[in-house]
Amino acid sequence: MIIVDTETVKLFEIVNKWCPEMLPFLKPNELDSLIVLRDGLGILEQGDAMEIIQYSICEHQNDVYIQ
């Protein structure tokens, strides 16, 4: 049996740790997004953090319609 430790964090925590300069550009609902990390925030690398941030922004934009 494989045991995987997961940690659920808000996107805010990832952005604040890896690229706090992006905080003013993200909406509150984006920053409140819950992210499940397979091995926790402690070993998250910057490249992975950026990928998570980009994906989260794209997910929130899926609900936006251009008129």
Automatic annotation (TrEMBL):
Source superkingdom: Bacteria
Protein name per the record: Uncharacterized protein
Organism: Paenibacillus polysaccharolyticus
